[in-house]
Amino acid sequence: MPKKYIFIALLVLLPAGFILFNTLFSNKPDMPKIASGKFDETKLVGNFHGQVYDVPKYESASLSSIDLLEKTDVLGSKKKKGEKRIEVDLTNQKLYAYQGDDKEYEFDVSTGKWGLTPTGEFRIWYKLKYATMAGGSQALGTYYYLPNVPFTMYFHQGYGIHGTYWHDNFGHPMSHGCVNMRTEEAEKIFYWANPSLAEGVDSVMSSDDNQGTKVIVYGDTPNE
After folding, report:
1. Residues 124, 194 contacting (CB under 8 angstroms)
2. What is the pLDDT of residue 3?
3. Block means of pLDDT (10 residues each) for the chain, length 224 residues?
4. Cβ within 8 Å of residue 186, ≥6 positions away
5. What is the C-alpha to C-alpha distance for residues 224 and 222, in angstroms, rounded to an integer?
6. Which of 31, 113, 140, 217 is positioned for an S-S bond with 173, CB 3.0–4.6 A?
7. Dist. CA 158–CA 136, nearest whole Å
8. pLDDT of residue 61
9. Are 192 and 86 within 8 A, CB to CB?
10. pLDDT of residue 67
11. What is the pLDDT of residue 68?
12. Per-domain residue ranges for the chain?
């Protein structure tokens, strides 16, 4: 092949390879840092794909203390009616929460559009009442910086189930791989799922005696 054609081919393929690399890797959520889980009053502005959003401080209004006590395992309690699990149906953009054979919750969610939501069987390994998330690519216009993301439950590396203040298009793919929920619904799952939070604590990691709830992700995300 003449050198000029090789040069032309490289000019075409190298940018395409750069875009593919960024799509596959730059859109992967960053690993979370160890944090208190408390609301950060100094970070009140979020950015998602160039759009700026005020960061609200969520005040629990949808759940009574009685509801929380009924739905949440008390740390050290022996009362159980079967193992808890969360199922995320990518095809139908749904989240289901089960305890044994009983379905406790069913909610619309938004899974990966600019990055794939991982499929398989996982466990919640880290829970924070508020977390900071960042990632994407400024070159591709997919950069995001989102402080104080409410009711975050990491189930695989930096992929989590969490509340959302930057969109309300649930039932359609809208994320970089995480599972976006309405904040009031994420709160219910947050306090229902394990690992359990001790009173007055806003973050917890899974441990042998306080193991995270199983998360099963399946299906194919709609191409929207």
Report:
1. yes
2. 55
3. 51 45 57 90 98 92 47 53 96 98 98 97 98 94 97 98 98 98 98 95 97 99 94
4. 150, 151, 161, 162, 163, 164
5. 6
6. 113
7. 13
8. 52
9. no
10. 55
11. 52
12. 35-218
Q: Which two tokens stand for residue 111?
A: 């899974």
How far apart (Å, rounded) are the C-alpha atoms in residues 108 and 80? 27
pTM of the model: 0.83
- What DSSP assignment string belongs to 2-70? -HHHHHHHHHHHHHHHHHHHIIIIITSPPPPPP------TT--EEEETTEEEE-------S--HHHHHH
CATH fit for domain 35-218, picks 2.30.110.10, 2.170.130.10, 1.20.1050.10, 2.40.440.10: 2.40.440.10
CA distance 144 to 151: 18
CA-nearest of 143, 111, 127 to 218 is 111
